[in-house]
Every structure is written in structure tokens, then in C-alpha cells.
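User: quick one, fold this
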Amino acid sequence: MAFYSEFNKYYDEIFPTGKSQLRFISSRVPKNSKILDVACGTGNYSIALSEMGHEVFAVDLDEGMICQLNKKAENKKVKLHALVEDMKSIGEKLRPHSFNCIYCIGNSLVHLTEINDIYTVIKDIYNLLNQDGVMIIQTVNYDRILESNINHLPTIHNPEAGVKLVRRYQYDKDKHIINFNTQLVIETEFQPISYNNSVPLYPLRSFEIKELLNKIGFKEVKLYGDFEENEFNQKAFSMIIEARKG
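Assistant:
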């Protein structure tokens, strides 16, 4: 699709590496850890964690994203394990491995539109963690979205790169699905070029994730409103989950 072809080109300009995200993840693991990045995108966090001395596995369903990751890793002379893989298959494909940390950020988990699929992926993550391992998940705060009837997210604009991402939400109450409608705008010398896309998302609520984690067996669960570790509440833009196995 034209949208994803262009989106992949501008991914790093739209979603640059966040210092608070990297600090949050790296502070949860000991030195020389084994880490799995689920839905890694172009792998900025995977590469940064590899540069810190960790052994990193990175998976993404999009072959173009993994291709970019491999090119960047090669340019930086960073060694990591990059795989084109559906997150629903990590339990099978990575079964021999055991990780200190598995993270899935960037609102990626809710691209699974069935709560049973979300449960299965989190259960697979639990099984892939070592006894003291930690899982980190970040989604949009859907408590806030649904209770306040929010129909858009802030537009991301990088004027230096000449790119803009417009993000709108349309909640389908009957299906309990949010249609995530995006418009990628490339600002050219003459006139902007736009690419449109729409994907369904599951609006995962805080009470649902707590119930799932308890059912699966996580022992220590914390929720934050951002990667600066501020309190999670209805006004928070994000929901950050930190869950420990042991």
C-alpha cells in the first residue's frame, strides 16, 4: 500500500527516539540483559539498548521496518536479532529463549482487535520471561478516550522533515472497536501530498489489563500515566504497564 510505503520512509521523523522511554526501559533491567522488543518499528530502541550492551531481539510484522532496522544496525555496527514476525507467533518462534525484559510500546498491542488475542500474546510474553523478568507495555489511555468521547489524537508535525501525521478516532460502540483514521501529509515545494489509512484498534481499558495480568500470574503490577512515572489517572494521555513475573 502507498500509505505504508511512504510511512516507513518517514517513520523516524514522525516517531523519534524518546529519552524518557529509553530511560524507563533501561532502568528496569540489569547489565547485559536479554531483551525482546515486540512491534519494534525501525528499531531505534532496540539499537540503543544494544549499544548499552544488552542482547536484543526485535520483531515486527512489517518487512520494510525490519529492513530499515537492519540497515541502521549495520551502519552503526550494532549486533542484534531482527525478525519479521507477527506478535501472535512469538510464543512459538522464540520458545527456546528466556528474557529479562519484553516490551511492546507505541500503542502496538491494541492492533490486536480481540481481547482473547491480547490475552494470548501477554501469556506468551509471561512464558518467555525469566523468573525475575519484567514486561513493559504502553498504549493510549483508553479510559480517557472513551469516558471523555475524544475523537482525535494530537497531530504530529515535523516541519524540518516536511511531514505531518493527522490522527482521528471513530468509536464503534456496537463492535467495541476504534477506527484509527490517519492522514500522512508530505509537504512538497508545490503542494502537499496526502495518503490516508484506517485500521481497527481494541480500546483496552485499565481494569481489563489488570484482570488479564492477574489471571496470567504476574505478581507485581504498576501503572503510570507516562514514561516519567507520573500517576496514571483518567486525564493521563498514556497507560504504561510494568509487570513483573516473580
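User: anything notable?
Assistant: The two ends are 43 Å apart (CA to CA).
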